[in-house]
Design brief:
Strand content: 15-25%
Bound molecules: cytidine-5'-triphosphate
Number of domains: 2
CATH architecture of the largest domain: 3-Layer(aba) Sandwich
Radius of gyration: 25 Å
CATH topology of the largest domain: Rossmann fold
Length: about 400
């Protein structure tokens, strides 16, 4: 399975600068992003900015690249899973409504057969002009999606309709169009992610190498599949996931306190957090303060997964994770039984590309009836496959 490919066409408008953060955000989420610009767009943002953010060439001239002739518009048009034009000026809307293809952007757009999204941004009077409105109607009649402009102060000094929607709104719309299979519509999903930190004293703590990436990818994938998602996350460096209820915690105890009261209303619970198994006892905290490290006594943290397993209600799906260093399948099977889970997603920590602090993962899903090896995938792809395997009817 390859990454989803999004082509973003940027036309000339002051709000082109907002597309920089959109490209950056999509790229961080492991999408392949290509930016095409009209000549006038380059007056507002330099192609170098988009090249750096997307990691891909920004092709402006369809006939010559590095002195060579190519047909990149056809290659890109075939590759695209979604074509977005944002900001879409009155001029570009008029062109695409009438099949005009006179530059790299419009030619690729005409050649693309994927879903298309137009995000208009312009002066209110230009937008409200019946010519533009007719052109937008024509675009709709060809099956293109239009994301309505916002109302507010415009860069030209007027106030009214015509503002480019915020990058996160555009991103949400992009996700809606990319993921049409809403197999978790109406489901409430709770996910735990990241490490917990167990304070030894005000300065030191016990923790582990978890980055939270797998849990965050699961939250995004569940949201994309239509679920109402709550993500309970230990300390990490990742940005909050838009469209997800975020709950930030530090210790295993806080994670437990955040998760247990929510169990009743959840349909699915996925515990991908690497919870510290031990924490210092209170008395040890005092001792260590004076003794700098000596006399550290530990006690077990509450096993959140096992507690949820004990109270599991009918129809509720409980998915645990397991980090194993040997006998992966056998150990995971034991965990499945012991913690009363429906699935255990097992990682072999000894394998390259699996586990902490890498962007790929190689997991095996263990259920009561079988085991399924998903192979080496990106964490985003692993997340989608886990959800499909465990939750899609
Ligand atoms: N887990 C939890 N609460 C804890 C410890 C672990 O909810 N206090 C959850 C993890 O989120 C994960 C699963 O239990 O979903 C398995 O964690 P793992 O550390 O692999 O298993 P342990 O039961 O701790 O067994 P061991 O470390 O001995 O392999």
């Amino acid at each position: 399975m390859s990454k989803k490919c999004i082509v973003i066409g940027v036309s000339g408008g002051i709000s082109a600068y907002k597309i920089c953060s959109l490209v950056s955000s999509l790229k961080k989420q492991d999408y392949e992003v290509h930016v095409l610009m009209t000549k006038s767009a380059t007056q507002f943002v330099g192609p170098m900015t988009f090249e750096t953010l997307s990691g891909e060439d920004v092709i402006l001239d369809m006939f010559e690249i590095n002195g060579k002739t190519h047909v990149p518009h056809i290659t890109l048009a075939k590759k695209a899973d979604l074509f977005v034009i944002a900001p879409a000026s009155a001029d570009i809307i008029a062109k695409v409504a009438h099949g005009i293809a006179d530059d790299m952007l419009t030619t690729t757009f005409l050649a693309a057969t994927c879903p298309k999204l137009i995000v208009p941004a312009m002066n209110t009077h230009m937008l409200e002009n019946p010519i533009t409105q007719d052109n937008l109607e024509k675009c709709r009649s060809y099956g293109m999606e239009i994301l309505e402009s916002g109302v507010g102060y415009l860069a030209c000094g007027d106030s009214g309709k015509g503002r480019l929607p915020e990058p996160n709104e555009i991103e949400d719309k992009i996700k809606d169009l990319l993921y049409t299979d809403k197999f978790l519509e109406g489901k409430k999903v709770l996910i735990t992610a990241g490490p917990t930190q167990e304070a030894i004293d005000p300065v030191r703590y016990i923790s582990n190498h978890s980055t939270g990436k797998m849990g965050y990818a699961l939250a995004r994938a569940a949201r994309n599949a239509g679920a109402e998602v709550t993500l309970v996350a230990g300390k990490n460096h990742l940005a909050d996931v838009p469209g997800v209820n975020m709950v930030h915690v530090v210790s295993a105890e806080e994670m437990k306190d955040a998760v247990l009261p929510l169990q009743k209303k959840m349909d699915v619970m996925i515990l991908s957090a690497a919870v510290a198994d031990f924490r210092p006892k209170t008395i040890a905290r005092e001792k260590i303060h004076k003794n700098s490290g000596l006399g550290l006594e530990l006690e077990r943290t509450t096993d959140i997964l096992a507690t949820l397993g004990e109270k599991k209600k009918k129809g509720q799906v409980l998915i645990g994770f397991a980090m194993e260093t040997e006998n992966m399948v056998a150990s995971a099977q034991k965990k499945l039984e012991k913690k009363n889970c429906d699935f255990i997603v097992a990682n072999d920590l000894r394998e390259e590309g699996a586990g902490f602090a890498v962007d790929t993962n190689h997991v095996t899903i263990i259920s009561k009836k079988e085991e399924r090896d998903l192979g080496l995938l990106s964490k985003e792809e692993t997340a989608e496959e886990i959800l499909k395997y465990c939750l899609k009817g």
